[in-house]
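Troubleshooting: if your tokenizer reports a length mismatch, compare your output against this known-good record of 119 residues.
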Amino acid sequence: MALPTTPCNLPLRTSMPGGRDAVVAVPAQLEWVPVARHFAVAILLRWGLSGDNLDTAEIIVGELASNAARYGRRDLTLRLVLVRRTLRIAVVDSGPPRTSRWRHIMPRPPTSTAEASPS
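Known-good structure output:
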């Protein structure tokens, strides 16, 4: 499956008057983190953020999305809310757990009684 290269290819929902609330949902996979970052930058530029504020927001979105992709569930939702001069960035993971990733982190319990019994 080809990944979208620009935020305009992604579903967008704005619910606050003036377009100060934006939400996008993508798969919680590391290859989608740059898409979430680019989406955030495009929205924040539209809202008039620039300079250090824009750079800081991009870093925060990248870190939160990366954590959700590495340790979260299957879906990732990014929400940006700008009220007056305060930007709220929220990243939520949802969906069923990705059980296969736990196999690499946690040891498997013994599968037979022979493995668990003393020698």
